[in-house]
């Protein structure tokens, strides 16, 4: 369980770095510690505020077939940027792109995790 959480945080930190590299309107500062701090802070904001927003906006999420979740993730990113000086996000458009990238990476990680959990370790081929 702890291993899963640590791996998730490291993947999220790598995703923050990827977004900072790809998106000109997103800047990460503070070096490695700044990225790790931003990652942990985002995880907490996403857990508390994101959970609340997903609950309140559930009808909008259903009506938009889940696309409103990108807006909720963008809002949590902007709130994280407001709380820490290690993350700057210029504009809602940049936050939406970052939310999209983070969602794609999250889905890819879940697919890999599910695939590795299902497939048993195979030994050498027997003749």
Automatic annotation (TrEMBL):
Residue stretches spanning the membrane: 7-26, 32-53, 60-83, 89-112
Domain of life: Bacteria
Keyword 4Fe-4S: no
Keywords carried by this UniProt record: Membrane, Transmembrane, Transmembrane helix
Entry keyword annotation includes Transmembrane: yes
InterPro entries from the UniProt entry: Phage_holin_4_2
A Pfam family the protein falls into: Phage_holin_4_2
Protein name: Phage holin family protein
Source organism (scientific name): Streptacidiphilus cavernicola
């Amino acid at each position: 369980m702890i291993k899963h959480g640590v791996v998730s945080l490291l993947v999220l930190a790598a995703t923050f770095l990827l977004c900072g590299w790809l998106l000109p309107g997103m800047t990460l500062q503070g070096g490695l510690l700044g990225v790790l701090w931003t990652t942990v802070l985002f995880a907490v904001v996403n857990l508390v505020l994101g959970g609340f927003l997903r609950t309140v906006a559930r009808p909008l999420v259903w009506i938009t077939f889940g696309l409103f979740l990108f807006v909720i993730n963008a809002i949590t990113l902007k709130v994280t940027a407001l709380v820490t000086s290690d993350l700057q996000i210029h504009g809602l458009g940049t936050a939406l792109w970052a939310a999209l990238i983070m969602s794609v990476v999250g889905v890819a990680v879940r697919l890999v995790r599910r695939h590795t959990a299902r497939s048993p370790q195979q030994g050498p081929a027997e003749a």
